[in-house]
Amino acid sequence: MTADVYQDTPLIIAGTTYRSRLLVGSGKYRDLDQTREATEASGAEIITVAIRRINIGQDPNAPSLLSVLPPSHYTILPNTAGCYNAADAVYTLQLARELLGGRTLVKLEVLGDEKTLFPNMPETLKAAESLVRDGFDVMVYCSDDPIQAKLLEQIGCVAVMPLASLIGSGMGILNPWNLSLIIEQATVPVLVDAGVGTASDAAIAMELGCDGVLMNSAIAGARDPVRMAHAMRLAIQAGRHAYLAGRMPKRFAASPSSPMQGRPA
Q: Catalytic: 250?
């Protein structure tokens, strides 16, 4: 059997094709060298950057993330982590566009409070409308609510990114049913964002039919971030292939794996 049997359609976001369905964050690592090593091990091509926390040129006197993850090799995806209203989020991404030479692919997240980091959906919808009008290609962190996800798609967001569980919690996918409803109705990529803790969580997300997974804490917070990044890379691939293969149906009775015909009574 040749490798061609296992070929897959690529992930396409805002007209750009990506081989990897794993997106990774750039925060919480020991230093920039570890950030680079873990990113390389993950095989990710899209790297999220919290503009309010990580230097990509705002401070010319400080080390820049772009020195180890150059935009010539990666899609740098600025995000609005730390924003709690639409106005701050829009301003932050306008700044990011200037820093990145006019690139328009961004990740929007507007948080509701500091304790849960749950999305503030009214402010998220307001910011999404403004950014889309301004020419941005908006990937958006949202609640796992199928109605809200559909509204964001109708506004013109290029990907919806429902949380699996609270940001940084590592609790995994708490509501697979809602994620399945979002996937079933979506005509843009659906990527799980937040809550993944280990490789099995990533595989489950892909087995549900998600187009990809974004994570940061699950890798950076591991005892060995570089090895965990590699594990996540394999989990995403395995989960995707399992989804495409189609799992066997669940049954409430045993079914022997060997044929029973022809056996002596």
A: no
